[in-house]
Amino acid sequence: MEWLAKDGLTVRWCLYVAVVGWLGVYPANAAAQVRPPVTTSGGKLVIPPPTRTIVVADLAGEWGITEGINTTYVDRYTGVYAGTDSLHFTEKWILTANGTISSDFFGIQNGRKIAEKSTGVVTLSSAGILIIKMKNEQKYVLRGWLEGPNMTVMKLNGPWYGEIPADVLSNPEKGWNLDKIWVRQASPDAGAKPAPVASGDGKAVTPTSVRTIAVADLAGEWGRNDGINTRYVDRATGVYAGADSNHSREKWVITAQGTISTDYFGIVNGRKIVEELKGVVSFPAAGILVIKINGNGRKYVVRGWQQAPNMTVMTLNGPWPEEIPADVLSNPEQGANLDQKWVRLVEPK
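Request: output the structure for the sequence above.
Response:
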């Protein structure tokens, strides 16, 4: 996906893809299809290829995805900030075992609400090609399938509106920028857990915890992925003048005693960057996480916490190197472009 700069402006594209809970149901036979223990690779959520043929009936239920795209414009010659565009959206699919689909899209673009609902039909070939026919025909490659007792995670590559390239079909590393993570969650069990995930206008919600989160609650390995692409064009001619890219993943290993080890891996214009650091974490106030590394403190607001037997999803807003603005603390919609989704996986017992 590319964003062209116009009138001598530079476009920076930030894509955040997060694994989020979305209230849904499992098919009746889901309990017999539990995956082996889940592992992580460099802090990255591993969603293995299906070990069996997935059919349309396996897709029955409610699936959700959340994404955000932020575009910052900067004058190419002066470097002066020239405005931003933002699009943050959620999409929900309700699929039936009979192959029907209902799509519910909700987005906020520069403060303007976009809502769209569609219906159609789906087919899924034995080769893992998912075809959705609504207003147009979209094709996806089923690249990953992870089942647990309370959640299913599906990795789809697409959409493709024509023929899917042969190398995308044969090589799971090709076209990775179109990989999407969809989540289907079973209804939470009764007990002292966060309330069931709610949705408003089709928007997925990572609920806040029913109690105060402490350092000990963070113990474990957390991971997230980010991507930033910058494309340059000549202001006078509109001719392509180069590009920058920065794709990274980061892992935190936090102990109950408050120590943290960070492992950052990034590719900047084809150049590898690896950084490993150690520090300490604390909660000086309820819901304010501070990470100190090499004498520098980074502050985060804990905006969401959803815990399940095999996965925890934490929404952090930050980092803030100085004091966190009061409106960010009081209004969860403020500073939304700095929201980050971190995932901690727990191996099933």
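The chain has one domain: 9-345.
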